[in-house]
Amino acid sequence: MSEAEEKGHGTSAAHHGSIWPLVAGFGAAIGYAGLVTSTTILGLGIIVFAAGVGGWIRDDLRSPSSPFYGSSPETPGVVRVSARKLATWVFLATEVMFFTAIIGGSWAFRLRTANWAEPGEVLNVPLTGLNTFILIVSSLTMVEALAAIERGNVKQLRRFLGLTLLLGIVFLSIQGYEYVKLFFEEGLRFSSAPDGINPLYGSTFFIQTGVHGAHVTGGVLALAYLNAKAHRGGFTKENHEAVELVGLYWHFVDVVWIFLFTIVYLI
Amino acid sequence: MAETATAGAMAGAAHGTARKRPYVYVFVVLAAVTFLELNVGVLGLAHDLQVTTLVVMATLKACLVAAYYMHLRYEPKWLILIPIAGLALVSVLVVTLAGGGNP
Hints:
The structure holds 2 protein chains of 2 kinds. Chain A is mostly helical. Helix content of chain A is about 75%, strand content about 0%.
């Protein structure tokens, strides 16, 4: 029996009985309503959402992360996909469409306007190449973290999760450094660009890399949660689905960057 | 508890954890292709060919990450239909953007 289960939160039924996801969803709904009505309602929504997420994390840190296969009877020899993994893949499919809209829109601007910067003319390609390498290494450490806990090796899980978190923070730090240099020294802004370059170049650069950076930030927060839970003994060889699901998200962010790096920096 | 353990065992079976997976080899390929991407300019290719080469290399890297790191290679075959469904809708957007009219 795992350490978390010994604390009395071990059953799958108890894990799925949390009220906090509903609170978070309710808060998000209030927040969205506030976006089109008033800042007071928006603020209320943010508070309720934050309380929901906080309660959810608090509950989850105390319970094991076991897969949930629904109520259908098990069939020997038939490999099923858990409900959470299925939902994660559906979520990632929506993210594919989201990023394609942003990248496709930016590409359309590029094809139909003149004076676009050449690769390396404004952007620091070698530095971003290093950042790309860092993100690839972080994908390796993430998948090794999952492999470690699948073997039941909690010590290696903690080590690889810590490395992945560190690499994610380094990626964001380098991107922040790049933004500061571009904004203050190169004059690449949200609605303007250095002399002779189409101002849309700045807009499309910041929207594409900024939205991706926001996703990396979300991944870093999720990794911080995984690290905290791993250090509390919350993952075992049998119960570790959260590691896999956060890993799927992290690898997806890597895939998006692979295309962004090519489209924004190299072409 | 038994139910949870069974679920965990099924998850393990789904991932093929008994097999040694080529994560490090995939990483080496990803790193090598990234290096090639950064230095593709030295080949002196025509612009269109260079762009095509870069897009092919990026697609190769993305497929490797999805197949091995996101485990699509080890999951039930039908699971790949979900990201493909997203890509199908994406293709509509791409065709629309590539077509005539103002953006």
